[in-house]
Amino acid sequence: MSAELDELYQSVILDHNRRPKNFREMEDATVKADGVNPLCGDQLTVWIKLDGDQLTDVSFRGQGCAISKASASMMTQIIKGKSRAEAEQLFGDVHALITGHPTGGDVGPLKALGGVSRFPLRVKCASLAWHAMKSALAARPGDSAAVSTEADGPGPEGA
User: Fold this and answer.
1) By residue range, what is the domain housing residue 44?
2) For 7-62, how does the pLDDT look when each residue is reduced to its tens digit (9 = 90+)?
3) Distances 28 to 75, 83, 104, 116, 130 between C-alpha atoms, Å
4) Is residue 101 part of a domain?
5) What total of structural domains would you count in the chain?
6) Cα(82)–Cα(131) distance, rounded to whole angstroms?
7) CATH classification at residue 61
């Protein structure tokens, strides 16, 4: 990655951290999931409003490092309006990107997260919101799911 592109991506991440999009609780969400990364201290909740198979609204709240918050902010922007299948495809493409194995799928502005793969300890920070989104989509309407980046909690083992 060129130095200019790397700097642009860092700028995108910092902007989403400072001014996160869709950073709010959602009272009328269909499903939600709480996510925690005990190693870093990141904690967030992702809310999703579904209309059939469409994600009509997505939001998050929480605290954490810049990468965690930026990833959640970018995720809410890109999956809003998508179908469940499209959101799950994006999960796979983003997870592959941040773990250093890009699929070539169109992740658009989420390419900014690609640099995370150079910092293995930060992969869990970048993937937390995505795992929470996936857990929320697997929950029954009205239910709340939970996910942890560590093996001793519910959810993904590893990243």
Assistant:
1) 3-147
2) 767 888 999 999 999 999 999 999 999 999 998 899 999 999 999 999 999 999 99
3) 19, 19, 35, 33, 21
4) yes
5) 1
6) 17
7) 3.90.1010.10
Prediction pTM value: 0.90
Within a domain: 156:
no
> At residue 66, does pLDDT exceed 80?
yes
* pLDDT tier for residue 151 given thresholds of 50, 70 and 90: low
pLDDT tens sequence across 91-148: 999 999 999 998 888 898 899 999 899 899 899 999 999 999 999 999 999 888 999 9
| Residue 144 backbone phi and psi in degrees, to 5 | -120, 135
The answer to the question of residue 58 being in a domain is yes
- Backbone φ and ψ of 57, nearest 5°: -155, 145
Q: Which of 84, 61, 63, 68 is nearest to 136 (CA)?
A: 84
DSSP 83: B
H/E run at residue 59: strand 54-63
The rounded distance, in Å, linking the Cα atoms of 64 and 56 is: 26
Q: Please give the structure tokens belonging to residue 79.
A: 């999956």
CA distance 100 to 56: 30
- Neighbouring-strand partners of residue 144: 32
CA distance 10 to 115: 9
